Amino acid sequence: MRKIITLIIFICFIKSGFSQNSDIDSLSIELAFQNADTLKVNTSIKLIEKLYEINDFDRALKYIIESEKLSYTLDYKKGIAEITYYKSLIYAQKNDYINAIDGYTKSKDIFNQLKDTLGIAKVNNSIGLIEIKRGNYAKGLQYSLSAIKELEKRRLKNDLRLAYSNIAKAYYNIEDYDKSIEFYLKALQVQEQLNDKKGIDISNSRLAELYSMKKEFRKSIDYYEKVLANNPTNNDSIQSVVYPKLGGEYLQFNDYENANKYLEQGLNINRRINNKDGLLTALINLGNLNLQQNKLVIAEAQLLEAGNIAEDINNKIELLRHYKLMKTLDSVRNRFDKAFVWQRKYYDLKSSLTNNGSVDDETIERSELDLSLNFDQKSSEQNNITENKETSKTKKDFDRLQLIFYALLAALAIVSTFLILIYLKRNSSVKYAQELEEKNIKIELQNEAFQEQTKHLENVNNVKDKLFSIISHDLKDSLSSINSFIDLLKDGSLTRAEFDNLIPELSENANNASLLLFNLLNWSKSQMQSLKPNPSLFDVQEVFEDKVKLVEQRLESKGIELVDHSLRDFAYADRSMIEIVIQNLLANALKFSKKGDKITISNHISNGHCIISVADTGIGISRQNIEKLFKNNSFTTMGTNNEKGTGLGLSICKELVELNSGKIWVESAVNVGSTFYVQLPKSKPVTA
């Protein structure tokens, strides 16, 4: 029966391992057959996440490098942010905090651009973990707290487990013990849901320590016993830590039987595994126990051994407790000269620790209180007995020592007052420096805002100058030409037949003026940053039909053939903006085509996008001029019939297409023709 159970457990373990590897293998195969698009990046991110979970960091980094290149090629912001985040997680696991923080910052900037609240929360939580590990508790606490709300809303238990533990640890280190208990309890709840055995042990141990600090010893005992219950088998690493502390908690209740049981077990385990920290705690508490039970010889041996260990491992707090107990032991034995020596060592070490800031007064007071809670009454009774037995000589010696002790206390008080005055003065200087720094930062921010506003006003002024310049030249010329024709007709200088012959030219001027004004209005609107797309699904073929009707007369007058290969297909964009783009592209094709040329309009589907094209067999564009297109530099050339332009049409087209998550480009050869392409999404783009 025992063999069968063992076999079942082994099969379950193998199955679990295969299941995890199967997921990774499946994703690897899926990735290999995918096209180089955003879907491939998303699959790679899932694979990287799986590899990170099993700590296969080297393999994960290989996929990160490849996916990062593809994401930058596709300009896929979401992919770049996620990959940078996982790369930073691996840096943090390898303790490369500089690269980790740099990566987190870049990832967070992109998540902010995408308004991805979950991504921001995960990054903040990870930064908080690093800062807390580095000892920057206040800073780490700020980041982790900012992440909590979003993580709780999404119920991301793994992230919450880390966040709660980090916040609890930070509160513990800044001595806000009530808040620390609150978040360790939250962490414990999530850890139990995830069956995180190691995390449960850590949280229970921390809660036991915290309740002990708050003098709630019964709760402390309960949580230490939960740690033992969570590890039913003999686990030396757990028991060596818990037993000495649990024995110390029972000692606070004068429960000598349980205290002795756990302290002796802890002592034996720590001797066996040579764990000096646990051995020190067990010896100090056993010394205190035997001292309270008046077993002075045993207590002295245990306390002297504890003192040697405390000095060896440089544990100042336990050394303080050692000095305090040795002073009490020698006082009970009427060895007041030795008691005074221990007292002096105690105060020297205490002053050293508080002055250099390595330990605060509250920590020291806790260690003192732990020793005095159960010993005060016994010490008082013993002193009464001792006083009755003292000789007059001993009393005089004690009085002399007491006088020296008070003198030392007075000197200590004077020195302490002096140090406090120095501290207050230094604190005032630091506060003044901080206030000055804050004012300087505020002035810098105001200057930056002023410079940004000045730059914006200069840009607006440039737009205005450019707009009036074009209106005063190009638009004025077209309108003046039309006006001249009308004046000649009105004055009778032209016959009806002559005017009919001039109608095509008059129509061309009117069309040029209309298109020029159309482009100027759209260009100025975009420059003033007021264009906002209102996307919807629309039929591309319908837009082509509407815009072709507007240019039919011009096509006929120039002798140009229009070939319509458009299909009924839908794009997801702002229809009015795309109408502007198609109208400009048709106008350009007409402008640079000669009699007998062809203009071909078409649309098709490619890689999940709608591709629109306007092709002509006109004069084409040189390679040098192609580089000048789509820029805000008013580049323009004369058409085949000397048609003029503002040079703004294509820059407007580019801005409108990009506002609708699309792309625009051109392919052209001189004397062969040009084809302009516009790529638009077929559905609402996925944004985080």
Cα(first) to Cα(last) distance is: 54 Å
* Mean of pLDDT: 79
**Compute the gyration radius: what is it?**
41 Å
Instruction: Give the CATH topology of the domain at 531-681.
Output: Heat Shock Protein 90
Provide the helix percentage: over 70%
Q: What is the number of helices?
A: 25
Enzyme class: transferase
InterPro entries: BphY/WalK/GraS-like, HATPase_C_sf, HATPase_dom, His_kinase_dom, HisK_dim/P_dom, HisK_dim/P_sf, Sig_transdc_His_kin-like_C, TPR-like_helical_dom_sf
GO biological process, one term: osmosensory signaling via phosphorelay pathway
Pfam family, one: TPR_12
Helix/strand layout:
Elements: H1 2-32, H2 38-53, H3 57-74, H4 77-93, H5 97-114, H6 117-133, H7 137-154, H8 157-173, H9 177-193, H10 197-213, H11 217-229, H12 236-251, H13 256-273, H14 276-292, H15 296-312, H16 316-332, H17 336-355, H18 361-372, H19 376-389, H20 392-491, H21 496-527, E1 536-539, H22 540-558, E2 561-565, E3 570-573, H23 575-591, E4 598-606, E5 609-616, H24 623-626, H25 649-659, E6 663-669, E7 673-681
Parallel strand pairs: 2-4
Antiparallel strand pairs: 1-3, 4-5, 5-7, 6-7
Helix pairs in contact: 1-2, 2-3, 2-4, 3-4, 4-5, 4-6, 5-6, 6-7, 6-8, 7-8, 8-9, 9-10, 10-11, 11-12, 12-13, 12-14, 13-14, 14-15, 14-16, 15-16, 16-17, 16-18, 20-21, 21-25, 22-23, 23-25
Protein name: histidine kinase
Keywords: ATP-binding, Kinase, Membrane, Nucleotide-binding, Phosphoprotein, TPR repeat, Transferase, Transmembrane, Transmembrane helix, Two-component regulatory system
Catalytic activity: ATP + protein L-histidine = ADP + protein N-phospho-L-histidine
